[in-house]
Structures are given as C-alpha cells and as structure tokens.
C-alpha cells in the first residue's frame, strides 16, 4: 500500500500549468499518469474555450454545446433527448431552454408525434449566432492542437478511439 502523501512528479520548468498531472508520482502506473495527463489536457482546453466563448461572444460552453446539438438536429429535439446528448439533468436543460428562448435563439414547438411533448428548435437568429460561434470555435480548437503534426493528431485520435470503444471490465 502506498503512503498517503507521496512526492509528486515535478512538471518541466517551461510548463506553465502543471495542473492535474502534478498529482502523479514517479511510482504511479503508466495508466494513472496517462489518465491524469488526459484529464489535464481536457481541463486546459475546456478552460481556454470557456474563456474565449465568454470574452468573444458573452456566452457559456453549456449554451454553445446546447446550440451545437440543435444545429445537428434541424428537426429539433425533445428536452429528454437534449438532456441525454448533453449528459446533464432535465432541470439543467429546462433552465438553459428558458434562457435561450428568452434570448430568441431557440423555440419550443409542439411535438408532432406526441402532443404532450415539446421539441426545441433553433430560431433563424439561433442558427446565425451559432454559425458565427462555430467558425471561431473550430479555429480555436485547431490552434490548440497545432503543436502536434497532423499524423500525430490522427494517431492520437485513433488511440483514444480504441480506448473509448474497449469493453468495460468488471471488478
């Protein structure tokens, strides 16, 4: 059993934000160090994107993700489907829907297949606003990965895909 307090791996001196990787110790398994590095990269990218969305468009990542889901489903989505796509609670989706509807970006329409349900769709303004954000968002993401040559980006993508589709192990 490892002691509770262990000396952490020190990040390279030129690394400005060691973040979650600093939790790893020299004797941690490669899988643990890899997990912490993935988490640190995800957190760093997410923080950067959140900041840029706030500064450039005065919006949040949650609102951007919500609009992105609706952009992918022009016929609209039921609130329950939005909740599953966004991996958040129904209450969060309801709150976002109310805000975005008040801003004129989405509207609720009666579901033609179930009169008791609503579908949420982008308005013309919502489509226009999202399109502008999406163009810049893609540029931001591309710039964050430009330090990796395209073949290495492809390799990373394929390796992460293998990890993601691996069947879960029990125990």
Automatic annotation (TrEMBL):
PROSITE patterns: HTH_MARR_1 (PS01117), HTH_MARR_2 (PS50995). InterPro entries: HTH_MarR-typ, MarR/SlyA-like, Tscrpt_reg_MarR-type_CS, WH-like_DNA-bd_sf, WH_DNA-bd_sf. The keyword Endoplasmic reticulum does not apply. Residues 14-25 have a biased composition (Basic and acidic residues). It comes from the Bacteria. Residues 1-25 are annotated as: Disordered. This is MarR family transcriptional regulator.
